[in-house]
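Subject: design request, 343 residues
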């Protein structure tokens, strides 16, 4: 598996990270530990979790794996997140010093570690001044509780403001952003990706298979059933069946992925993951699996190299919709000029 730097830091991580939102929810502890073992055997070294995943159970499961495997802490880069509610009180949520201090200490305890490699703000907090959050994170770096920090689900202007504010105050700089990004969801390419490239911040895409849509498991106009995420909950959040099934672009993208899969002999999941891992600013793609077999199939994407033609076919088929302004071709032309000048 390819190794890359963690954003603008010097820490090395694998191009595919292990997402653990399924731990304690869709995967019991024994299965979760087998998933970790399989991931590490496949060459991965980057484990991503969050305090809110199964109300702390995901972190606890990872902590027990670490306790059962003494001496292996140095083999893995551990990332977690704080921000969402972990209680009913007004200060049990958000990015204030009050909440983050309690959230970080609780994550350290559940994981059973003395420091977290990457601590991520799970979403923007409109009530807390950004200076307060960044000041806390800088102090956490100085105190040795975290090595680096990053964000998740931030917009482009929020990312740029944070990077510039940290620089202006001489604080530790953010190194990563974790956004939703896949062949069906490419809106971040308008503002978020350019902001990340400008600040040398690495992207850690979540939902790289769009909640299973890009795996090839669904058929047009046939509502999913059985033990799949949409089979169990067709109205599941942004992945809801009715809306995406009714959109011709969804099936245009799925058909393009299937065509490349047929050419390469790879699975649709592997094709979608390989395309994403090669996108600008992407550091590591987060794989979420509920079974060892799912993870094994996904990890094989590391061995798949798409041709320029295949990559272009996928990119063209999944082009995000835009109006002419401000993201269409005429507006893009306004933002560039030729070296030789002229009209």
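Subject: RE: design request

Done. Sequence follows.
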């Amino acid at each position: 598996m390819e190794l890359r730097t963690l954003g603008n830091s010097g820490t090395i991580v694998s191009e595919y990270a292990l997402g653990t939102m399924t731990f304690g929810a869709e995967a019991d502890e024994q299965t979760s530990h087998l998933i970790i073992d399989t991931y590490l055997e496949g060459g991965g070294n980057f484990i991503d979790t969050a305090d809110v995943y199964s109300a702390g159970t995901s972190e606890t499961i990872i902590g027990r794996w670490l306790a059962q495997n003494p001496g292996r802490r140095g083999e893995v880069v551990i990332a977690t997140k704080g921000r969402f509610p972990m209680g009913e009180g007004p200060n049990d949520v958000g990015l204030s010093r009050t909440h983050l201090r309690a959230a970080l200490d609780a994550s350290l305890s559940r994981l059973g570690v003395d420091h977290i490699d990457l601590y991520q703000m799970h979403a923007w907090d409109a009530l807390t001044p950004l200076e307060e959050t960044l000041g806390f994170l800088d102090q956490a770096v100085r105190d040795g509780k975290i090595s680096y920090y990053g964000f998740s689900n931030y917009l482009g202007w929020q990312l740029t403001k944070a990077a510039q504010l940290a620089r202006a105050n001489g604080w530790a700089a953010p190194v990563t952003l974790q956004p939703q990004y896949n062949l069906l969801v490419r809106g971040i390419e308008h503002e978020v990706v350019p902001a990340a490239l400008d600040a040398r911040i690495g992207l850690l895409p979540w939902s790289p298979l769009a909640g299973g849509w890009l795996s090839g498991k669904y058929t047009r106009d046939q509502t999913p059933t059985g033990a799949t995420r949409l089979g169990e909950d067709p109205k599941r959040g942004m992945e809801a069946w009715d809306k995406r099934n009714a959109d011709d672009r969804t099936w245009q993208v799925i058909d393009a992925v299937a065509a490349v899969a047929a050419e390469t002999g790879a699975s649709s999941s592997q094709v979608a993951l390989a395309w994403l891992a090669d996108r600008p600013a992407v550091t590591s793609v987060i794989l979420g699996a509920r079974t060892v077999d799912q993870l094994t199939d996904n990890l094989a994407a590391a061995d798949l190299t798409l041709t320029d033609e295949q990559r272009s076919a996928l990119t063209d088929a999944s082009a995000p919709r835009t109006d002419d302004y401000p993201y269409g071709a005429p507006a893009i032309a306004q933002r560039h000029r030729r070296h030789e000048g002229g009209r």
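The radius of gyration is 20 Å.
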